[in-house]
Amino acid sequence: MLNTTLRTLVARRSFHATARQNIKVGDALPSVQVQLSSPGETVNVRDLFGTSKKAILFGVPGAFTPGCSKTHLPGYIKAAESLKQSHGVDRIACVSVNDAFVMTAWGKDVQNDNDQVTLLADSKGELARAMDLAFDASGALGNHRFQRFAAILENGVVKQLFVEPDRTGLDVSLVENVKKHL
């Protein structure tokens, strides 16, 4: 009896583990709290993007990491005005599994002075897991992190999704690619 029950539980656990899929086109963003400039300043992602007619949300493995700091975030900061004026984008946001203080310091370091890009801290990785875009980066970064991705959203619903095939590369999620699809 015990072995049968155990096998059933293992089978159920395996089924659920394989049934998970990345967020996909047509899905609404999950209802998850993230931090803004401090741990006490939180916002629900679904609420934040549900009021934006057109938005871009992109995720990075970590603040202050080379690809994120030299290419990914600076590209969106540089293109922010053009994206908003020429392409009708209401909001651009970057999310990472870091705390709010790290994200705020990173924004200053990359000269996101006018908050062209809203920085979102997913300090516990809850949004990364809810979107099924988390991966184990504990060897390099100490914990699970976001796969590098970008999403074009309309009223909080994913219209286009670009997930880097190797999780951390800099290709399909860069602003130059996303801009082609607006």
TrEMBL record:
Gene Ontology CC: mitochondrion; peroxisome
Domain Thioredoxin: 23-182
Parts of the chain that traverse the membrane: none
The organism's place on the tree of life at top rank: Eukaryota
CDD domains referenced in this protein's UniProt entry, alphabetically: PRX5_like
One GO molecular-function entry: thioredoxin peroxidase activity
Annotated Pfam families: Redoxin
Keywords for this protein: Antioxidant, Oxidoreductase, Peroxidase, Redox-active center
Family note: Belongs to the peroxiredoxin family. Prx5 subfamily.
GO biological process: cell redox homeostasis; cellular response to oxidative stress; hydrogen peroxide catabolic process
Name of the protein in question: Thioredoxin-dependent peroxiredoxin
Active site, UniProt feature: C68 (cysteine sulfenic acid (-soh) intermediate)
InterPro entries per the UniProt record, alphabetical: PRX5-like, Redoxin, Thioredoxin-like_sf, Thioredoxin_domain
